[in-house]
Amino acid sequence: xxxxxxxxxxxxxxxxxxxxxxxxxxxxxxxxxxxxxxxxxxxxxxxxxxxxxxxxxxxxxxxxxxxxxxxxxxxxxxxxxxxxx
Length: 85
Known about the structure:
Shape: globular
Distance between the termini: 24 Å
Structural class: alpha/beta
Number of strands: 5
Largest sheet: 3 strands, parallel
Number of helices: 3
Number of domains: 1
CATH superfamily: Vaccinia Virus protein VP39
CATH class: Alpha Beta
CATH architecture: 3-Layer(aba) Sandwich
CATH topology: Rossmann fold
Strand content: 15-25%
Strand order of the largest sheet: 3-4-5
């Protein structure tokens, strides 16, 4: 994902507006990251797509808590972990 809109649980588009600047300033993206605003998963997905080994995702909202991250991203669950903040 490169700043494109992602869909939130209620299907309203969410645009992670700082995504491109963060990826550019923090390149190369490697190692372990903390996404403190998981929401629809835009930043977490982009960090994983750009080389992060693991992303810990935290969010106060529990909207999509019934779905695990590997279901949301169709990727290996060992690369992501979500926490309610």
